[in-house]
Design brief:
By secondary structure, the chain is α+β, with helices and mostly antiparallel strands. It folds into 3 domains: 10-93, PAS domain (Beta-Lactamase, 2-Layer Sandwich); 100-187; 190-321, Heat Shock Protein 90. Helix content is 55%, strand content 19%. The chain contains 11 helices and 8 strands. It has helices at 10-14, 18-23, 25-29, 34-50, 95-154, 160-187, 190-195, 197-212, 229-250, 279-283, 290-298, and strands spanning 54-60, 69-79, 85-93, 215-219, 254-261, 265-272, 303-308, 314-321. A 5-stranded mixed sheet has the order 4-5-6-8-7, with helices on one face. Strands 1-2-3 form a 3-stranded antiparallel sheet. β5 (254-261) and β6 form a beta hairpin. α5 packs antiparallel against α6 and α8 (197-212) packs parallel to α9 (229-250).
Length: 327
Amino acid sequence: ISFSYVSQGCEALTGLPEAQVRADAESFFRLVPAPERTHLSATLDASAAQFTTWNWAGRLLPPHGANEKWINIRARPRRLDSGEILWDGLVFDDTQGRLAQLEVERSREELRALSRHLQTIREEEKARIAREVHDELGSTLTALKMDLDWLGEHLESAPGPIAQKRATMGKLVEAAVAATRRIVTDLRPSILDDLGLAAALRWQATEFAKHTGARVDVDAPETGLHIDRDIALALFRIFQETLTNVARHARATEVAVKLSSNDDALILRIRDNGVGLSEDDLRKPTSLGIRGMRERARQLGGDISVSAEPGSGTTVIISIPRSKRAA
């Protein structure tokens, strides 16, 4: 490889005199860090083989301890009469743009780290509240129900209004016990910890069907696959949010759910036969909590796609790597 022309800006970018680079092209390529040189050569070879524009972006390490530079190479090949290939192009100094991009990425990662931390605190607080409600309120209601049952046994001969009042109080306590159990389950789905993600999805689907009348088919085989607790919790919470959206907006009568996995990721697909969404609806920043669900998935290196058409239902696909990897 040789350079037939080198501009006067060469030394400002590379730290090498233009005459040196023109006489010794390898002096330029030696400035590229060794790990990145392989990719540079591969893109150059591909450009020559396919006769397509050569595009490469990477680092230069100027001599004498100067700060590293980020460059973009863009050159178009043409064949000379001799059969050799000549690339006409430019080498751009993209250092400032790259540094700005790295700063943006660093800020985004800090925000994601903060979001992950807040999410963890929220789940821990939910678990604490669930324990308090179960242990304190649950035991109190159970004792109250036992006392009412005792009164019922000793007031068999009591006047009608008293017995009726006791029976009414008993029903209220039973309703409070049921409400307490539901709140505890919503705060902390113990079935997820005890029986795993597949069982938790089926349980949530059954609860959804009871309250909405919609038919929910869940294909979530019990494979014995170990799923990290944080990943299982994220998929379960996203599933809950998706079903909430179906109940509020979709007017669906059927929902199909499939949990699958491959070597790299867990994939949860949820499809309903509801009214669907328009492209404008999907593009709204706060559309149906999609942003929150996507952020929850991205905290673990995953993502969410939502596809829908008016009148044709909505499909939500969540994929999360099987080994936790922060985005």
